[in-house]
Amino acid sequence: MRLQDKVALITGAGQGIGAATALKFAREGAVVVACDINAASLNAVTEACTNAGAQTAAYCIDTTDRHGVDEVIASVLDRFGRIDVLVNNAGITRDARLQKMTLDQFDAVIDVNLRGVFHLSQAVSHGMVARGSGVILNASSVVGIHGNFGQTNYAASKFGVIGFTKTWSRELGPKGIRVNAVAPGFIDTAILSTIPDDMLRKMREQVPLARLGTAEEVANVYAFLASDEASYINGAVIEVSGGMTL
Question: Which residues share a beta bridge with 139?
């Protein structure tokens, strides 16, 4: 198994891509530390990971709260001794056109999607540097590369994540730590449940593969990048979009 005994902390693990990533890592032999702001949502995820044979821990975490983040990281280190992989998956949307976007909408997305990624990455980096190894994986988006109508805040945050990735790969690469980003396109998760069928049809038509992606397909990429098979990949931004940006 490609992630055997690696301790992997995954934020936003309660649903969607985060939950699929937690289960994929569990099946690949990782010790899964599942984190989400919604504690109740973690029950099914941790049960599935345990049933897959993984050692599992769950933490309720608000990634924007640095004190809370530091407490969780300290607890994980005390319990498992190290964190080998961090998957910064937690993220939110608060969409509106530029002229109608409120400051609260803007700030909420920047706080979770940028500040939260900074908090977790900085908190785990010290231990990784001390050991001379580690992997940080950041969730960007094709929106962070190409923009999208009505998503000023989200596009800015996901472009910022790419900036984090490029910078940290330069800073931490010489210390044995790889930093990469994944940029999903249209992925069939619960967030699409409120989108009308005609809009979903139009979304599929934008993709050369003529379908939406699955959370498992994104999780597969995270698992590869977390593994030693990706040992010479650093500073990359990998689109998982079915070719929608061609």
Answer: 182
How many residues make up the chain in this entry?
246
| Active-site hit among 59, 154, 222, 232 | 154
CB neighbour list of residue 187: distance below 8 Å, 6 or more residues apart: 16, 17, 212, 213, 214, 215, 217, 218, 240
pLDDT band at residue 96 using 50, 70 and 90 as cut-offs: very high
Give the pLDDT band of residue 2 (cuts 50, 70, 90).
very high
Residue with tokens 């010790």: 31
Q: For residue 235, which phi and psi values (nearest 5 degrees)? A: 80, 15
pTM given for the model: 0.96
**Residue 194: its pLDDT value, please?**
63
Task: Fill in the DSSP letter of residue 30.
Answer: P
Homologous superfamily (CATH) for 7-240: NAD(P)-binding Rossmann-like Domain (3.40.50.720)
Beta-sheet strand order (sheet of 237-240): 56-60, 31-36, 7-10, 85-88, 134-139, 177-184, 237-240
pLDDT of the residue at 246: 65
Cα-trace Rg, the chain: 17
Annotation says 154 is catalytic: yes
